[in-house]
Amino acid sequence: MVIQENELLSQGVKDWVSANGYKLFWNSKKDYLVYNDITLTGKTDDDILQALGELFFSENYGLVVKKYEKNRVIVIDEM
């Protein structure tokens, strides 16, 4: 997952989610402008989503990632 500089965090996540066959539900009023490119890597979608959750935690965004495999939905929720 690559989130570009000067892009909203929600948009970068949405681009990756859509490209990987999921739908995004951004269940938060919070969003953040990205000031430098962010690259999250992993062998699986779960690895990348785990890295995204760790990013949210390390930056004190107050957001969590939830994956619903059967529905192919990724939810970004407030803590």
Automatic annotation (TrEMBL):
Domain Toxin co-regulated pilus biosynthesis protein Q C-terminal: 4-77
InterPro entries in UniProt: Pilus_synth_Q_C
Organism of derivation: Pseudescherichia vulneris NBRC 102420
Protein name, as recorded: Putative type IV pilus biogenesis protein
One Pfam family named in its UniProt record: TcpQ
